[in-house]
Amino acid sequence: MRKLPRSFYARDTVKVARELLGKYLVHVIDGVPHIGRIVETEAYIGVHDLAAHSSRGITPRTRVMFGPPGFAYVYLIYGMYHCINVVTEREGNGAAVLLRALEPIRNLDGKTSGPGLLCKAMGIDLRLNAHDLSSDDLYIADDGAPQSQTIVNRPRIGVDYAGEWSGRELRFYIQGNPCISKK
């Protein structure tokens, strides 16, 4: 497997969200690689997207979203669950892709269907916020195999507060995969 280059992330967020499906999230902890295949994502396309954390501007929490692409934006939700996003597009845009679900591949304990469960199984927490995804201990990789999966578009989950943005089909998943978060 080869790490995705920074140029992969420095593109349109919707395109990145779709093309992350089938790639592998790798977190090396104490020399042990924990690997899951990405099977569900959501695109948050910048400050104009009312469901995106960046829509409230630059804050200590969202600063990483406005930085260069290819970094992890990790945050805590409901005071107990971590979520990991991948920063996309050019610096200053405030765009990112939420990783919603993984198919366990190697060394994963527990469920991976949902962003909080995914982070728990992968050992991802706030210490990895703003982590460079071209590092050797947390990265996304491609095995080079051709992708022949059907991708489904649906509205994002849990963004009813976002007005017209709540119904936009910016959630993507691999059709028929048993590990997606919501059927």
Automatic annotation (TrEMBL):
<dbReference type="InterPro" id="IPR011034">
    <property type="entry name" value="Formyl_transferase-like_C_sf"/>
</dbReference>
<keyword id="KW-0378">Hydrolase</keyword>
<protein>
    <recommendedName>
        <fullName>Putative 3-methyladenine DNA glycosylase</fullName>
        <ecNumber>3.2.2.-</ecNumber>
    </recommendedName>
</protein>
<dbReference type="InterPro" id="IPR036995">
    <property type="entry name" value="MPG_sf"/>
</dbReference>
<keyword id="KW-0227">DNA damage</keyword>
<dbReference type="Pfam" id="PF02245">
    <property type="entry name" value="Pur_DNA_glyco"/>
</dbReference>
<dbReference type="GO" id="GO:0003677">
    <property type="term" value="F:DNA binding"/>
</dbReference>
<dbReference type="GO" id="GO:0003905">
    <property type="term" value="F:alkylbase DNA N-glycosylase activity"/>
</dbReference>
<comment type="similarity">
    <text>Belongs to the DNA glycosylase MPG family.</text>
</comment>
<dbReference type="GO" id="GO:0006284">
    <property type="term" value="P:base-excision repair"/>
</dbReference>
<dbReference type="InterPro" id="IPR003180">
    <property type="entry name" value="MPG"/>
</dbReference>
<keyword id="KW-0234">DNA repair</keyword>
